[in-house]
Write a structure and sequence with these properties.
The structure holds 2 protein chains of 2 kinds. Chain A has 8 helices and 51 strands. Chain A is mainly beta. Chain A has a domain of 123 residues. The two termini of chain A are 38 Å apart. Helices cover 5% and strands 39% of the residues of chain B. The longest helix of chain B has 10 residues. In chain B, the strands form 10 sheets. In chain B, strands 1, 3, 4, 5, 6, 9, 14, 15, 16 and 22 form a 10-stranded mixed β-sheet that branches. Chain B is mainly beta. In chain B, a hairpin with a 5-residue loop joins strand 12 and strand 13. The chains are: A mainly beta, B mainly beta. The interface between A and B is large, with 72 and 60 residues.
Chain lengths: 981, 893
């Protein structure tokens, strides 16, 4: 067998074994024959550090079938980035979305988190909450050996990664004989922090050992991190389209209209609010692994992984709310029709306090049996049971996520001004004649309490086998095959208190809050990374108040006696009654076969991988629905659906099957150059929320409005055909350059469509015999047969009961209901792009760099001038990464730069307008740096800086002038030490 | 490497999974809703003055002894001394002791009264005392405050604040139980003896007697509000009066009747009523005293003074007196309120004050008043002030029935009066007349014949008018008003001749009369010189010539006004005159073709008009533009809306509105004649220069009109008070369907009231169904929409028909009618049985309920901006009620 320049490290080899058959196994299988670690003769090339990580990553990329990128631990317990999402963004084509300034979800080649599958040691992991996407920020990087990102389809992978499949590979004790341990302590200094501790601890450790001559292995990794920080933000919830005839006629002196690019519409901000969130987060991760290897060819592994992230957030906010119409007093429109200045009367200005503690708990227990039966057969069985639970009710005393809105409507007008600066300004002309409200004028608006836990469970059994061809003299090397069953269940509900205290300011409750409850703050230091932020803000103040006290006082005063039961103050999220619970299950059976062929074609060594995966999915969904009995005609223009008493539990089951072929060719063009071609299909299943069954009928089905709506348990997955072409030049030990072209064409986008349906037993008085009789009689009498006339005819002819209610007869025709349901559209959308990467080390100087860029283009782009609803490809953006490092003599330093161009986050805004404008994210570029110094063989001290350029996030709507948000987190630094035994 | 193994094992063990997860909690937020006791005073109350009485004697730097035997102005039975036997500090307590006086003393008891005037004077704050009260019939301890500088005049004009008083504690009350009440009171208003006060009594819920133990008594005093507390419980709130204003900013009454002040206005020197923070907006000092006897204690409980109770002395024991300032805002004392639910409710702690209620404002609509024209006006009886006679109705040869006044020996004045004290006719009611709208043009007129001159024949005759119970008046020589029949007035009326008199209101106003509430008209010989006079009066009226003289313009009425021809702007057509039904006769017909256009009437010369723009300035107060229109066929475009546009001065200003924004609030219905009315004031408010109106247009929205054919008639500008035009037709809120911009409404029950078809007579009606959730239901105007019924005040009613299909399960409630003005700024709620019909609902029957606007107005409704009407069973008792409502209207009776 041809062994190229592949350099085997101890880590790489052991990894190959541990991964079993599910992932990297095939390419290493041959090497097992020549060098297995168990033989104890492995040359230990313990290349650690940045360079080691790069070499291992590069080797993995090179040796894989299809397009695979990887990030490898620098050494035990040290990953290049502490956050897994942030680590992944170093990979070509991967961009991340941040939450609280920390990467949490990945977008690959323009396909967002829901389109990517995250697996842990080859196991499909449940999404966070009532979603499919996995929040990577809840998992620490200690204990992770390798992150593997597979961009091309592979038959043996669990399906779901339309964009990519990320496999997180953790440390295994038997991978390395004997005891291994590393322990680190860090202090995190988050410059943004105001309320919590300025320096918060992180401790992490990895320990593994083998016993009884490597028959038993035990490994444990843990990490505990605390982080306190502050997020500052300015937000607009949406831009409202105002067509010209909706604009009030104003004195010309109050209007500046610079519209030239658009002339038929203007856009106004629904609100403007500013917020400061003080966040305390605590994250604990642990993994325990036992391994048992009674004989060389059999390994049993049991592992248990647990993580818990608790995030407590206290937010204060202030801002204005706008409605539109004749209350617009003055405005200035720019060339695109965006109001850059508006003076608007009515509504209110407010001060808000919100609080919640959200806990995300994830547990996974798994067992893996791996048996090399003989030289020809390898079998593996893997089973795991995992769940992920998100619960926002961990505030002690509240049990929900609460929001208190105080404020006042005692104002003349509110002025929005974005003619200067990079965040808009607003001020209120209060009735007190100033731009500043007095504490004594602050009133109760309303509070709301939401409890919305979600849980996602996955149970998965995978059986894999490999047959190595020694029987036939053909280039077939091996055949992989397998069966898997994946049962996924998601459930969640949303309990909402309603608007407690009665929305609005009538009656007024200003007197129930002592003035001393309000603390006046000035805005210096707030959003000061922006030119119009900080002390430059107008009017430059905001009030904060004590969350607990505001509740206590409103509870004591705004009682049912004072405002009535309907408005009484309460913190009960169930005040409006028990919410309905959403449940969705998905059961998928799959089988696959995958073959590998090796042969030489001319001078070229060619490897072909071809496979097929077949899946059958069943989606049982139970829903509690109101069952219609009949539709009565109760007045000329009133039709009422009469429902059966109580709710009926209905089961809906959707089913579909899918065939996923794949085909990879890899050619070693020269010793250093690899060329690849891949074609395959990948899928991502439909969003959970749309899969719920149950048909909801209109309660007032007037003629022309007989409507019903439903989810669709039979929604097909999004299906992508992927084409990849890649050239890679491995010109040095840790250096390579690569260029890749890709094209993804995605089918089965989801649209909501209407369909006319009839249901047995639901008869229609309309156009029934009596109806027709009435029409004929009326027309014969020369009367116009309006519904009123027909109804009167019914009443006069005794077709209605004493209350004027007409009920349907059996001989009436069936009602035709316009039922809307999400369905798969036949439109395909295509993304294509080019990926460039280079990684270079300058010989023995210790210097090196890595750079990559991805340029992506989609065929459906967003047109900001188009006022119709659009359906572009979202998330598409160019991205680039650059990294320089120096590593020599125990000192290493690294600076990384990650850049992402602006992109469409999605269609629609929080306060949507009928035109469904986009939400777009502005260009983002972050610089991180780190320095490591090895004090001695065991002890390393390090300093890391994240976002040292204090990059901020900005979003906008149709145009950049349609500001949506700006966020500021500040840099954070970590000083730490790691001790390796 | 192995040497580290054991250490690592230990570390690992210590950091087991459990341990790790056990450290959670640092990031968890924790809400404590008990963090504050909302019923306790806030920390912003900062102590600024106190006496803890921990010394050995009374602190002369804080307290002054009042030494007198004046009896406190209440005929009290004690002399106040500075003797140590009457007041001393002992054991951390101030003792004020009432003792029997020595034989021969000026008063039978001695006691003490201490004040802090000029030593401790305070404006706003929390004032607190912990004390144990004395007991016994005749005991009257008090902790109170008086004004330091008496800025507003003598007692009680500058106010008095009684923080706590008690009388006769433990003496038997009317039921024989020991008295245990305390009182918090304010004194204010007019000079004694017309002084006013308001206050609240309180006793502890457990019946504990304040004379048995120490309790805390406090007030919190801030600008415009004072609250009383005993042991931290707020038992009374008093506030300044709030003058209620209508949407035009005119005072119409009091939205809260609280305290007031009456004092001489600086500058004018007039004694004026002030509904504001005065007199409780100045510095007050503290007083602590224990009176014995006096008017109050001696007249209640066991009456008199129980000498036994005082034989060994009675003591007011004070642990401390503390004064706090609201640090949030010492200037107003606001921002530190210790309040509880109900503290601001008249049904709970809020005390109604004694402020006079300002008279309703002028409606601005001039109406002529006939006081007497041969038939007695029950609201304006003829009146003899002081002579004891009753003016007689007699038959006069010339004038028919007239009133004859005869003056005897007793001095008197005579005339006509509209004050309740003098109205005897059961149908009559005091109706002060608002002549202010015609103050410039109107006059008081009457005819007078002297049947017999007074014995003192040369005495002068006077004419006098009063308003508002005599608060203003004008008195003029009678001859000043002489208008005939002779050319020149004689010095006295000519005996046996009917003479006419007319006094212009402007002259009377000049002479000091407030013309907005005229309630007496008098004619008489000079006081005490009239004996023997007999005179008759007839045709007594307050009026202006020809009612109002408002400009008017008829643009189309059975034919076009040649100065204002029919006009098609841009469509090239010529509108025609067409015969319509009998009622309308010749009408103006407009037909819109394919070319976008607008149509209407113009007076612009360039368009063929007579160049006679209309000046509607004089119509801005109540004037209208009104027309009738029938849409013969609607535009082809179903989305088209009908618009009204009016321009002035060659389109220098213009107003365009949907027709549905007319007073009637209705959009056109094909085939039906409908009336559309726009108020000139409204058009002016929307920017129209009403002084040069030159085009009016009625049309479907531009370029959506094709196919429209419509007819207009009776297009005119006018004032409803001129001539015979009926006032604006009122508002039909629900009849088959809700009016434009009004909807059927369930406040809080979450239901959607429906339109149902009832019997033939009612057709489609509104049906309301009340479920378990307490709610009220009715009709609600859209945001910012309301109806101004001011023009209908005197004649208008709110009327509706209602049928209860199912009575509520809980029968304890009443059926109520409630009407509100915009923003719930004012509201009136009445039982349905208070309607003119006077009946309560009967299940299954359609019944009509009528409420006069005047009644609603008098009860406090701002009728200029009505936006909600509700019909419902008492809150919380409505479950199960199903009822239907139809023909809801605000209309002229």
């Amino acid at each position: 067998m041809k062994n190229t320049t592949f350099k085997k490290t101890q880590l790489a080899t052991s990894m190959a074994l541990l991964l079993g058959s599910t992932l990297a196994m095939p390419s290493y299988a041959q090497e097992d024959e020549t060098a297995t670690p168990e033989e104890g003769e492995v040359e230990v090339i313990q290349v650690s550090g940045i360079r080691g990580s790069m070499i291992r990553s590069m080797d993995l990329k090179r040796s894989s079938n299809g397009v695979v990128d990887a990030i490898s631990a620098e050494e035990l317990g040290k990953f290049p980035d502490t956050n897994l999402a942030e680590a992944l963004q170093r990979i070509t084509g991967v961009t991340i979305s941040r939450n609280n300034g920390e990467g949490n979800e990945i977008t690959v080649r323009g396909f967002g988190p829901e389109f990517n599958l995250v697996t842990l040691n080859g196991r499909q992991m449940p999404g966070t909450g009532f979603t499919r996407s996995f929040n990577l920020s809840n998992l620490s990087s200690e204990g992770v050996n390798t992150l593997e990102l597979q961009k091309t389809a592979r038959a043996e992978n669990p399906s779901g990664g339309l964009g990519a499949t990320v496999n997180i590979i953790t440390m295994k004790p038997l991978a390395q004989s004997g005891q291994q341990a590393s322990f680190s302590v860090k202090g995190i200094y988050d410059t943004s922090n105001e309320e919590g501790d300025d320096v918060t601890p992180e401790i992490a450790g990895v320990y593994s050992n083998t016993f009884a001559d490597d028959m038993f292995g035990f490994g444990v990794s843990f990490s505990h991190q605390e982080r306190d920080f502050q997020q500052q933000a300015a937000n607009i919830q949406g831009w409202q389209l105002q067509e010209n005839d909706a604009l009030p006629e104003l004195d010309p002196e109050n209007v500046v209209d610079n519209r030239s690019n658009i002339t038929n519409a203007a856009f106004f901000p629904k609100d403007m609010n500013y917020s400061i969130s003080d966040v305390q987060r605590e994250r604990s991760n642990a993994q325990v692994t036992f391994q048992f290897r009674p004989i060389d060819d059999f390994t049993a592994t049991v592992d248990y992984t647990a993580s818990r992230a608790t995030t407590g957030t206290n937010t204060v906010g202030w801002g204005i709310w706008n409605n539109f119409g004749s209350n617009i007093n003055a405005y200035e429109l720019d060339a695109n029709g965006t109001a850059v200045f508006a003076d608007i009367s009515g509504d209110d200005g407010s001060f808000t306090a919100s609080r919640n503690t959200t806990r995300v708990d994830a547990r996974s227990i798994g067992i893996n049996l791996d048996w090399m039966v003989n030289d020809d057969w390898h079998l593996a069985l893997d089973y795991h049971d995992s769940y992920n639970e998100i619960d926002n009710g961990y505030d002690e005393g509240l049990g929900s996520s609460g929001q208190i809105i105080l404020g006042s409507n005692q104002l003349q007008s509110k002025v929005y001004d974005y003619r200067e600066g990079d965040i808009p300004q607003v001020f209120v002309n209060w009735n007190n004649g100033t731009n500043e409200i007095a504490p004594g004028e602050i009133d109760s608006n309303f509070s709301q309490f939401i409890y919305s836990p979600g849980r996602s469970d996955i149970e998965q059994l995978q059986l894999d086998g490999t047959w190595f061809n020694s029987a036939f003299d053909i280039p077939l090397i091996k055949v992989d095959f397998g069966y898997a069953r994946t049962e996924q269940a998601l459930s969640g509900f949303n309990a909402w208190s309603g608007l407690r205290g009665g929305p609005g300011f009538n009656p007024s409750f200003t007197q129930i809050f002592p003035d001393s409850m309000f603390v006046r703050n000035d805005t210096s230091g707030f959003l000061d990374a922006f030119s119009s932020g900080g002390a430059n803000m107008n009017p430059g103040y905001y009030y904060t108040f004590d969350f607990d006290e505001a509740i206590a006082r409103q509870l004591a005063f705004i009682t049912a006696d004072v405002v009535g039961e309907a408005n009484a103050y309460s913190i009960d999220p169930y005040y409006m009654g028990a919410p309905s619970v959403s449940n969705v299950e998905e059961i998928t059976d799959s089988i696959y076969v995958q073959t590998e062929w090796d042969f030489e074609l001319g001078d070229y060594y060619v490897q072909i991988n071809a496979g097929l995966r077949y899946e059958e999915t069943e989606v049982p969904s139970s829903a509690e629905v109101r069952v219609p009995q009949q539709v009565n005609w109760v007045a000329a223009s009133e039709w009422i659906t009469q429902f059966e008493e109580g709710l009926q539990l209905q089961d809906f089951t959707g089913e579909y099957d899918i065939l996923l072929p794949m085909f990879d060719v890899k050619v070693d063009v020269t010793d250093d150059v690899v060329a690849r071609f891949s074609w395959g299909k990948s899928i991502t299943r439909a969003p959970i929320g749309l899969l719920q069954g149950g048909l909801a009928f209109s309660g007032s089905p007037k003629i022309g409005a007989r409507t019903a709506s439903a989810g669709n348990t039979s929604l097909l997955p999004f299906e992508s055909s992927n084409l990849d072409l890649s050239f890679e030049w491995y010109y040095d030990e840790a250096s390579y350059a690569a260029i890749g072209l890709f094209r993804k064409s995605v089918d089965n986008y989801i649209t909501t469509t209407g369909q006319d349906r009839q249901f047995e037993g639901l008869n229609d008085i309309y156009l029934g015999p009596r109806w027709n009789e009435a029409v004929n009689a009326l027309e014969a009498a020369g009367t116009q047969a309006t519904d009123s006339a027909i109804y009167d005819y019914f009443v006069n002819n005794g077709y209605a009961d004493e209350n004027g209610v007409v009920t349907p007869n059996a001989d009436d025709p069936l009602i035709t209901w316009r039922t809307t349901q999400p369905g798969n559209s036949s439109d395909a959308k295509t993304v294509e792009g080019i990926e460039l990467a280079i990684q270079h080390t300058f010989g023995e100087t210790g210097f090196g760099f890595g750079a990559n860029a991805t340029l992506v283009d989609g065929d459906v782009e967003y047109d900001p001038y188009n006022l119709e609803e659009q359906d572009p490809l979202v998330g598409i953006s160019d991205s680039a990464n650059f990294q320089v490092f120096y590593e020599k003599d125990g000192l290493s330093a690294k600076i990384t730069y990650a850049w992402r161009s602006d992109y469409v986050v999605g269609i629609g805004q929080a306060q949507g307008s009928s035109d469904n404008p986009a939400t777009q994210f502005d260009t983002y570029a972050q610089i991180d740096a780190s320095i490591n110094y090895d004090v001695n063989e065991h002890l390393t001290v390090f300093l890391e800086g994240i976002n040292i350029n204090d990059e901020t996030e900005r979003g906008y709507g149709r145009f950049e002038e349609q500001f949506l948000f700006a966020r500021q987190y500040g840099p954070r630094y970590t000083l730490g030490a790691r001790y390796t035994f | 490497m192995t040497k580290h193994a054991s250490k690592i094992t230990r570390i690992t063990a210590a950091l087991s999974v459990t341990t790790l997860f056990g450290c959670g909690g640092g990031a968890t937020t924790s809400t404590d809703i008990d963090v504050v006791d909302a019923s306790a005073p806030v920390s912003d109350w900062q102590l600024v003055w106190s006496d803890e009485f921990d010394g050995s004697s009374i602190d002369e730097n804080k307290w002054t002894h009042e030494v007198d035997c004046a009896g406190g102005g209440n005929n009290e039975a004690q002399c106040y001394t500075d003797s140590e036997s009457n007041s001393f500090v002992d054991n951390g307590m101030l003792n004020i002791v009432a003792l029997p006086a020595e034989e021969g003393a000026p008063k039978p008891y001695t006691s003490a009264r201490l004040n802090t005037r000029y030593k401790g004077d305070f404006k706003y704050g929390r004032i607190e005392m912990r004390a144990k009260m004395p007991e016994g019939q005749g005991s009257w301890p008090a902790f109170w405050m008086m004004p330091t500088d008496e800025v507003y005049g003598g007692w009680p004009r500058s106010g008095e604040i009684d923080i706590v008083e008690a009388v006769n504690l433990k003496a038997a009350d009317i039921d024989g139980n020991p008295e245990n009440h305390i009182y918090g009171t304010l004194h204010y208003g007019q000079e004694w003896p017309n002084n006013d006060s308001s206050g609240q009594a309180y006793s502890l819920p457990n019946g504990a007697n304040p004379a048995d133990d120490f309790h805390t008594y406090a007030i919190e005093w801030q600008e415009g509000e004072i609250r009383w507390y005993m042991d931290g419980y707020l038992y009374a709130t008093q506030r300044r009066s709030e003058v209620r204003e209508n949407s035009k900013g005119e005072a119409t009454g009091l939205s809260h009747r609280g305290w007031y002040a009456e004092y001489y206005e600086q500058g004018t020197g007039e004694l004026t009523t002030h509904w504001d923070n005065a007199p409780f907006d100045q510095e007050f000092y503290l007083i602590l005293n224990l009176a014995v006897g006096g008017a109050w204690p001696e007249s209640v409980n066991e009456t008199g003074i129980d000498a036994e109770a005082f034989a060994e002395g009675q003591s007011l024991e004070v642990d401390y007196v503390r004064v706090y300032e609201c640090a949030s805002d010492p200037m107003t004392g606001k921002g530190c309120e210790t309040v509880r639910p109900g503290y601001d409710s008249l049904e709970d702690a809020l005390v109604e004050g004694a402020a006079p209620i300002p008279s309703p404002p002028s409606t601005g609509i001039a109406q002529n008043l006939t006081i007497f024209d041969g038939t007695p006006n029950p609201n304006w009886p003829a009146w003899d002030c002081c002579g004891g006679s009753t003016p007689a109705l007699v038959e006069d040869a010339e004038e028919g029935q007239v009133y004859e006044f005869s003056i005897g020996d007793a001095p008197t004045v005579m005339g006509f009066i509209s004050r309740s004290a003098f109205i005897t006719d059961p149908d009559g009611q005091a109706s002060p007349f608002d002549a202010s709208p015609m103050e410039e043009t109107g006059s008081i007129k009457f005819d007078l014949k002297a049947v017999a001159l007074p014995n003192n024949a040369t005495t002068s005759w006077l004419f006098k008018v009063e308003s508002s119970e005599g608060s203003t008046f004008a008195e003029l020589p009678l001859k000043d008003g002489y208008v005939g029949p002779a050319d020149v007035a004689g010095d006295t009326p000519e005996q046996g001749v009917w003479e006419s008199y007319e006094f212009p209101l402007s002259v009377l106003a000049e002479a000091g009369l407030d013309t907005s509430a005229i309630d007496v008209i008098m004619v008489f010989p000079l006081w005490d010189t009239g004996s023997g006079a007999v005179y008759r009066m007839a045709n007594v009226e307050i009026s202006q010539e020809g009612g109002a003289s408002y400009p008017e313009l008829t643009i189309f009425e059975d034919g076009q006004n040649p100065n204002w021809p029919m006009w098609d702007c841009c469509g090239g057509s010529t509108p025609t005159e067409e015969m319509d039904d009998e009622e309308h006769g010749l009408t103006a017909e407009f037909r819109i073709g394919a070319d976008p256009t607008v149509m209407g009437f113009t007076t612009r010369a360039i368009d063929g008009g007579g160049a006679t723009p209309f000046d509607a300035t004089a119509l801005t107060d109540g004037g209208l533009l009104q027309f009738e229109m029938r849409v013969v066929s609607s535009p082809n475009n179903p989305d088209s809306t009908w618009l009204f546009k009016i321009e002035s001065n060659d389109a220098a200003t213009a107003v365009e509105l949907p027709l549905s924004d007319s007073v009637e609030g209705q959009a056109p219905v094909e085939g039906e004649w409908q009336t559309y009315t726009f108020s000139i004031a409204d058009l002016q408010a929307r920017g129209l220069d009403v002084s040069g109106i030159d085009v009016i247009m009625i049309f479907p929205a531009w370029s959506t009109g094709e196919g429209a054919v419509y007819r207009l008639d009776n297009v005119k500008f006018f004032h409803p008070d001129s001539g015979n035009e009926a006032p604006a037709g009122g508002l039909n809120i629900f009849s088959d369907t809700a009016a434009e911009q009004w909807s059927i409404w369930d406040c809080c029950g979450g239901s959607t009231p429906t339109e149902e078809v009832d019997d033939a007579e009612h057709g489609t009606v509104a049906e309301f169904r009340i479920g378990e959730a307490p709610t009220v239901m009715g009709f609600l105007a859209d945001e910012d929409v309301s109806y101004d019924a001011s023009a209908l005040l005197s004649t208008g009613v709110v009327r509706f028909e209602m049928k209860v299909s199912a009575m509520p399960i809980d029968t304890s409630g009443d059926w109520l009618f409630k009407i509100e003005s915009i923003g719930a700024s004012t509201a009136v709620e009445l039982p349905m049985s208070a309607s003119l019909e006077g009946v309560a609902p009967v299940e299954g029957e359609w019944q009509t309920y009528t409420f006069p606007l005047q009644t609603l107005y008098d009860a406090g409704l701002d009728i200029s901006a009505i936006n909600v009407l509700m019909m419902f069973p008492t809150w919380g008792t409505g479950n199960g009620a199903v009822y239907r409502v139809d023909n809801v209207e605000i209309a002229a009776q």
